[in-house]
Design brief:
homodimer, Rossmann fold, 3 domains, 5-stranded parallel sheet, 12 helices, DNA-binding
Chain lengths: ~300, ~300
DNA sequence: CGAATGAATGAAAACGATTTCATCCAGCAC
DNA sequence: GTGCTGGATGAAATCGTTTTCATTCATTCG
């Protein structure tokens, strides 16, 4: 059964296709009688709009691209969830791209966005490897927004995010203020994730500000998963001189870290201090509730997306 | 700057657009020399394929629609994550639709899938309210797959999922086997969520099988969030005759329930037994690790999607 | 009353691919 | 030489909208 087209509708309504199109998108341009007649015919004949044809004709689709680095954290739910909700209300479908922290995959997916002439792209995190590509996309007229990051001035892109450097600095300084001198850091890979590097830098700066040397053995870089957090913590605790406090600077790692401490019979915070950095609800439900850097993850993308 | 089209490429290569199209999609139909020439020209001139035009011409898009009921659980990450990964490898983009457990929103979003002539739709959970619409979509040639659910034979749709009834039966029976006679149930709203009803039915059947009357006061229905789980548990514990065991039959509710028990100074499982039902990694990291019905959530959609 | 205004509509040219038939030709068997 | 076969290619129709100009006609203004 071939689909009914706008032409067919027009014919049945005794008007031109142009009028039907207008009735659909700019109702105020069409007289009330005509519009209602068209609407009735559409309903009765089960006409289904063809989005591809519209996208082609408009040279622009209404689809929004959302990039996330992994589905294994809450970056995922917060980012995609908030954006989807916001976009739905405005009639924009959301297409999800998972880069797996891999610049090459990201490049491929970015290209797909170009092929679809998307309405815009939101990048969670920022991968320098594709800087040129992203800038050229922005120039081609594809609006790009970077979330979860504060970009250096040299990068001419819009962004919304938190100051990861400052947050990590303060978190570390808080631990130091409690009297700790050996503070561990569990963080994402600095080389690939801008966020991770910033947090590392904040941590290092806080140490330096108090004149404490940064012991590389106390810093562990891992992709942010619970399991990695657990393993990283185990490793720290097995050190000859283990840290007395640990800053787990990433979503899920703090939870894994806490489990690792518990497994070794350590109480938090009596035996070891643990500071998280997350945006997730779960930390309210651990025992004890985790001290953490609270991130307004929903609002980052929910309230400011334009 | 107007985009270069397949026509332009054809002209530069001294061939017809048809050949360019073939070089792109059916390379084996084109001689090696021609193909390589075309590829070079595409590269050098930065030609960008137009997906909308292709979708229109083919009367079919390659986009896959994925429906989830909420972004607030892990159904979300597991479902979308696994599907996205699988689809990426096969070149299918994924469009996410969040129904918010609302049939009307679901209907609107389903219609959007029709408008885009999508390659297929995967529905997480199943909402009877839209049964007719979904069936008619399937008839129109839009493949629909229901995940996380086992459908009654009367519904002619493909599905992959677990037997929620059986799982809940066994979970409840396990608690009863421990000697408990007052077993509470925290579950999603039966009216809207098929999964929730099945789990309730399994719970009720297990009680009945042992000749224990089902006390409505022990059953609390809430949308599945941690907070709701916590509140539900608090309410159960404040009953004149509180349950000695609770089956939290939904993703996040068990975690909230555990927190509520802890807040009242109850130890799990010494003072109260708690059984979860989830698919989430968290439960490995709670203290104590939660007993739970393990669901192969990734595999449900990851390995069987076709 | 003539001109100007503006609302409602139509004609027709895009938009950029895909795909079905041909067509052409080289090579090969007989 | 004739007739096939099959690989490589091209011509042209088609997909279903959108949108820019016109056009028409009824008002309104001076």
């Amino acid at each position: 059964m071939a689909q009914i087209t706008i032409q067919d509708v027009a014919q049945m309504a005794g008007v031109s296709p142009a009028t039907v199109s207008r009735a659909l998108h700019s109702p105020h341009l069409v007289s009330k009688a005509t519009r209602e007649n068209i609407e009735r015919i559409i309903r009765e004949n089960n006409y289904i709009y063809n989005a591809a044809a519209a996208d082609l004709s408009r040279r622009k689709s209404s689809v929004l691209g959302v990039f996330i680095p992994t589905t294994g954290g809450t970056v995922f739910a917060s980012t995609v969830g908030a954006i989807e909700e916001y976009a739905y209300e405005r009639g924009f479908p959301v297409m999800v791209s998972n880069t797996r922290y891999d610049p090459e995959i990201e490049a491929v997916l970015l290209h797909k966005c170009l092929e679809r002439r998307m309405a815009g792209v939101i990048l969670t995190g920022y991968c320098q490897a594709n800087e040129q590509l992203i800038l050229s996309m922005a120039e081609k007229g594809l609006p790009c927004l970077v979330a979860w990051e504060i970009l250096p001035e040299s990068v001419p892109l819009s962004y919304v995010g938190i100051d990861n450097y400052q947050a990590a600095f303060e978190a570390t300084d808080y631990l130091l203020g409690l009297g700790h001198r050996r503070v561990g850091l569990i963080v994402g890979p600095r080389s690939g994730i801008l966020r991770a590097r910033r947090r590392y830098d904040g941590y290092a700066a806080a140490l330096e500000a108090r004149g404490i040397p940064c012991d590389p053995a106390l810093v562990i870089e891992r992709h942010p998963t619970m399991l990695n957090g657990k393993e990283a913590m185990s490793r720290l605790l097995r050190l000859p001189k283990p840290p007395t406090a640990v800053f787990a600077a990433s979503d899920f790692m703090a939870i894994g870290a806490m489990a690792a401490a518990r497994e070794r019979g350590l109480r938090v915070p009596e035996d070891i201090s643990l500071m998280g950095f997350d945006d997730i609800e779960f930390t309210n439900y651990t025992s004890p509730p985790l001290t953490t850097v609270r991130v307004p993850s929903w609002d980052i993308v929910g309230s400011q997306a334009k």
